[in-house]
Design brief:
Length: 222
């Protein structure tokens, strides 16, 4: 399955709470549009969205469950991960940082139990090179740069953190997915040129509120 994603575009279909598109049916339609456009995989958040996209799109899906209230919020516990897989995700994305997990399990224990109980693959969302190395040691099948700039270990870059991406690619044997603040096709290509196994793009494709605001702000500044 991972090989089918190699050098391809994975589209993250997510909407924030309270937005007009915060609906599983809407996300499934966006996922279908992404598939028609050439996406090789889909990333989605929430059990309803994962289920709807699993039924609508015949592409590998990276599923996750965001839970507010703690620093570790991307599929924070084993329970959440198992439910995401049960909803139809072939790959489950989990917090891949070295921070304590709410259920007290280590990252290695979490990954091992996901593998044993479901057979699903695990994508560890990392925020630093040390996170990425620890995730690989813990048994992650994929490491993503998703949390670069969202923990206290690295500053948030304007655009993708290509420096971290290149460092992870050099240090790991595990496939490294570029994710985070990739806004243009040119940036996506730079991520691929930096060694990314695959590129994940969300907001710039699937979040019309943000895209509209970029245009509106540019015009307002003119």
């Amino acid at each position: 399955m991972i090989e089918s994603l190699h050098r391809g575009l994975i589209v993250s279909c997510q909407a924030y709470p309270g937005e007009p598109l915060r609906d599983a049916r809407a996300m499934a339609l966006i996922a279908q549009s992404a598939a028609r456009g050439g996406a090789v995989g889909i990333r989605a958040q929430g059990l309803a969205d994962v289920r709807a996209i699993h039924e609508a799109v015949d592409l590998p899906q990276i599923g996750l469950w965001k839970v507010s209230g703690d620093d570790v919020f991307i599929t924070p516990t084993l329970h959440h991960a198992l439910d995401v897989v049960d909803a139809g995700a072939e790959i489950v994305a989990i917090d891949g940082t070295r921070r304590p997990r709410p259920d007290g399990l280590t990252l290695a224990e979490t990954i091992a139990r996901i593998h044993e109980r479901t057979g699903a693959l695990v994508m560890a969302d990392a925020g630093s090179l040390d996170d990425a190395r620890a995730a690989e040691d813990a048994g992650a099948d994929i490491v993503g740069t998703t949390l670069a700039g969202y923990t206290d270990e690295r500053e948030k870059t304007d655009g993708p953190d290509l420096e971290l991406l290149a460092a992870c690619v050099e240090a790991l044997t595990t496939p490294v997915f570029a994710e985070g603040r990739i806004r243009t096709p040119a940036q996506a290509r730079k991520a691929l040129d930096a060694g990314a196994y695959a590129v994940v793009v969300g907001t710039a494709i699937t979040h019309p509120t943000s895209i509209t605001s970029w245009f509106a702000q540019e015009l307002a500044d003119a």
